[in-house]
Amino acid sequence: MSLPTTYSMQAPPDMQGRRLTVDSIQLATHVSSGPTASGIGQRDPPRREPAPTTLDAVAETSYASCGDLSLAYQVFGDGPVELVWAGSFASHVELYWTMPEFGSLMEKLGTFTRILLFDKAGVGLSDPVPRVRTLDERAAEIEAVMDAAGFGKAALLGVSEGGPAAILFAATRPERTRALILTGTTSYNAAQSWDDLECDPAELRAHVARELGEGYVPSLEWIARSQEFGRAVRSAWGSGAALKCVLASIRSTRQLGTFERMCASPGMARATAEAAFRIDVRPILPTITVPTLVLHARDDPGVPVQSGRYLADHIPGARMVELEGADHAPWFTDPDRVAAEIEELLTGGHAAPAQSHRALRTVLFTDIVASTERAAALGDERWRAVLQRFSEITAELTQRFGGTVVKSTGDGHLTTFDGPTQAIRCAEALRAGAETLSIEIRIGIHTGECELLDGDIGGIAVHIAARILGHAGAGDILVSCTVRDLVVGSGAGFADRGSVALRGVPGAWQLLAVERHGARAGSAEAQLVSTPTPGPRSAMRRSDRAVAVMAKRTPWILRGVARLSAATGRR
User: Fold this and answer.
1) Tens-digit pLDDT profile for residues 191-232
2) CA angle, corner 376, sides to 374 and 378, nearest 5?
3) Domains along the sequence of the chain with CATH
4) Could you tell me which residues belong to the region Disordered (predicted)?
5) Cα(481)–Cα(499) distance, rounded to whole angstroms?
6) pTM score of the predicted model
7) How far apart are CA 562 and CA 15, in angstroms?
8) What's the chain's Rg over C-alpha atoms?
C-alpha cells in the first residue's frame, strides 16, 4: 500500500533561493522535503493548488499511484496550458533544480504553462521496479501522474529516451494530448545490441542507411562517439563518464557522477539502454494526429540530428526546429529559443486540432478452432453453453487487462487495448481459459491506427489483425513485427513464422508466434528481463545520501558547508 505523501519543508527565510556548492554539486536550498502522510489507506482526490512560479518558491514533491508503484512528481508554473515533461532515466525531480540552466528554462515555461515533472518508475524518487519497464507501461505512468495532478488534456514534452513513450501516449490517447513536443529523441536506434558498440562504425552506418535511408544517416564520427557513450553506460555508470559524453556544458565529472548515482542504479541504466536499442516506434509516427514540434540540437552528441529530421518528416504536419548547440539536454541548448518555440506552438493557435476519431490501438481477434466439428459432437444446447462461457471468460479477462470487447464474431471476439503488452498477456490468459473448456483457440494481434466508430472500430489495422488470425493454427498467438518491437522488456518470446502476403494488404508481413513459456533462455529478451534493476539508493555513496538528506530536510546546513568549502579553497 502506498501513501499519498507531500514534501513541503522550506529553508529559513535568509536561505531561500540561495545556491550553495557541496562536493562540486550546485544545490538550490528551495528543494522540497520532509514527508508527511496526508492519509492512511486512502488517496487524496486530485486538487489544483497554486503551483510555484519562481525559483524562490518550493515545488512540492507528491506521489501518484500507478498500480502498486508510487511515482514522484512536481507541478511548477501558473500558465493556462498543462505541460507534461516526459524525461529520460537520468531523472530526479528534486536534483533537477540544482542546475541553474534547468531552473531558468522552467521559469520561462512556467509563465505560460503548468509543468508536471515526474520520475519514471525505477529512477529518482519513484519506487524501484524488479525489471525494465515496457513502452506501454511507461505511457501508463504518464497517465497516472496526469490523473494525480488533475491534468486533463496536456501537451507532452518527450525528452531523450522519454520520447518514444510520449509518442505512444499521443498516438493512443489523443483525447488527452493537446500537442507533442520532442527534443533530443528518436524513433529507432542505430545500435541494436551491446555487441554493436564494438563493431566498425561503418557497419552501423550501413545498417542505418538500409533501415532509414541515406538522408537520415549520422556521420562516422558521431557513431564512434555514441559507441563511447554506450560503453560508459554499460560499464561506468555512476562515475559521470556517461553523462560527460552528452552534456558538454557541465565540466565537473564529479557532479555528473553524483547525478548519475542519484538518478538510476547501474542495473537500471544498463537495462534501459538495452531496451532502447530494440524499441522501434517508426510504425506509430504516421498515426499521430496532434500538433507536433521537433526540437533538436544540430550537434547533439546523444541522439543525432538526423533522428529529429526523421521524426519531423514522418509525423503528419510536424515542424522541425534545429538549434545551435552541442548538448543533449534542451536546457543547455539555447533555452530562450526552446521556450519561445514551445510558447508559439502552445499559445500561437497551432495546438487546436479538429476532433480526431482515429487513434492507435492494439487489435486482438480470437477464433475457436474446429468449431463446427465441436458443435456437432456436443449438440446445440451444450455448444451454446460453451460459447456463452467463453464469452464470459473473454469479457472478464479483457477487463482485467485493461481492454475493451468490441463485438462477438460468432466463434470468437474482437477486442482492443491501448498497448500490446497487455494484449499479449490477455491472449495468453484467453488461451488458458479456452483450454479449461476443452476447446482450442487461435489469436491474431496487430497494433495500428483505427477509426473509432460508435461502438465499433474500423481501419486497415483491423483488417491486418484479421488476416494475421487467418494464418494462425490451433493454440497459436500470432503477432506482427510491430507488436514485437513495442513489447521489449515484457519477457515475451517470439518464434519467427516467416514473411507472408496478407490478402488485400500491400507488402510482405513478418509474422511471429508468442512462445508459451516466455523468452527462451539466452535470448536478448531473457537477458534483458533478468537484468537486476534496483533503485538508485543501492549505488549511492555516503556523500550522495548526505546531499539528499540535507537538500530535503536541512538545507540551511549547506550554508555552513559552503562557508567551509570557501575557506579551504575546495572547488
Assistant:
1) 888 999 999 999 999 999 999 999 999 999 999 999 999 999
2) 70
3) 5-356 (3.40.50.1820), 358-529 (3.30.70.1230)
4) 31-51, 523-543
5) 10
6) 0.87
7) 12
8) 25
